[in-house]
Amino acid sequence: MSRVPDPMVPSPSFPVLDPQAVHVWFCELSRHVECQTAFVAELSDEERARAARFAFERDRQRFILSHGLLRRVLSRYMPITAQAIQFGTGEHGKPTLSGPAGPSDDLRFSLSHSAEYALIAVARGREVGVDVEVRKANLDCLKLAERFFAPAEAQAMATLHGDAQQRLFYRLWTAKEAYLKGRGVGLSFGLERFEIMFEGESSAARVRLRGSGTVDQTWKIRSLPLPDHLAGAVAVAGGDGDVHRYDAAAFFLA
Ligand SMILES: CC(C)(COP(=O)(O)OP(=O)(O)OC[C@H]1O[C@@H](n2cnc3c(N)ncnc32)[C@H](O)[C@@H]1OP(=O)(O)O)[C@@H](O)C(=O)NCCC(=O)NCCS
Q: pLDDT in tens for each of the 254 residues of the chain?
């Protein structure tokens, strides 16, 4: 069972994913190493080949566990087994579902991993992007923000110090990555080309595109409640999206 300290939705039965909802699955991969053998058997040849290319066993294990978990999670929303799921890639590299998915054609997902943690977001009929980061204590956050973020974001960070500054950095960073991953464009889009605007102290944020100065009405961002040493966010297209967070261990892992 999970050691995650903050509240999670207790789910005796598998949650129903209605069109307004986004499900975000959290997992501490290192606690489920025993799943590795079963998960390897469910990966595609391409995924197994990717796994084999990692130089370090720890990285290989994390890849197998996160991608095996992704298959198990998605299969619960689809009328096919984890092993039968086929993936493709969008124009800029965003993983997609391909193959005869039938009624699950409208299923969208996003995967993120940082060290031994993984997040998987799933939605119907709307794109999603998710990001998780382990917060590093000794990072020069302000310097990174001044170099890579939009000026307004770096200025907001400069008004803070210490832990508060670092927390804002990770809040912005994960929100920015979630947005880029939702759109499927990746980091090459440019982190400085848009601003994350949190609504006060709320976990909700909007995105302002710097070129036009307009707010991107398609996407809404939410910071996620996670253990204190982590930061995470999900970006949801088309409306607010009712974000529910679940513990993957309770449903998918030994
Ligand atoms: C996608 C990207 C933002 C990942 O960020 P990250 O914090 O390092 O890693 P995360 O764990 O959060 O996300 C990785 C997952 O995102 C997904 N992903 C990969 N490319 C993606 C894209 N273009 N859009 C959305 N999701 C993507 C994959 O599931 C990937 O998992 P995998 O590597 O195990 O297959 C970043 O790698 C990126 O920009 N990639 C696009 C390609 C690119 O621009 N390359 C630069 C070439 S110079």
A: 334 444 555 445 889 999 999 999 999 999 999 999 999 999 999 999 999 999 999 999 999 999 999 999 999 999 899 999 999 998 899 999 997 665 568 999 999 999 999 999 999 999 999 999 999 988 999 999 999 999 999 999 999 999 999 999 999 999 999 999 999 998 889 999 999 999 888 899 999 999 899 999 999 999 999 999 999 999 999 977 799 999 998 887 76
**Exposure of 37 by Cβ count < 10 A (0-12 exposed, 13-18 middle, 19+ buried)?**
exposed
List 237's β-bridge partners, or say none.
219
What pTM did the predictor assign? Answer: 0.92
111: Cβ below 6 Å to ligand 1?
yes
Query: Does the Cβ of 95 fall within 6 Å of ligand 1?
Result: yes
- Ligand 1 and 5: CB distance under 6 A: no
Three-point CA angle 172, 178, 180, nearest 5°: 100
CATH of the domain at 190: 3.90.470.20
Asked if the structure places residue 170 within a domain, the reply is: yes
Cβ proximity of 222 and 128 under 8 Å? no
108 and 162 share a domain?
no
Instruction: Tell me if 181 CB under 6 Å of ligand 1.
Output: yes
Residue 12 CA to ligand 1 centre (angstroms): 33
Name which residue sits closest to atom 29 of ligand 1, judged by CA: 111
65 with 150, same domain? no
Which pair of structure tokens corresponds to residue 172?
């912005």
Residue with CA nearest ligand 1 atom 2: 186
Query: What domain range includes position 178?
Result: 135-223
Residues 151 and 124 in one domain: no
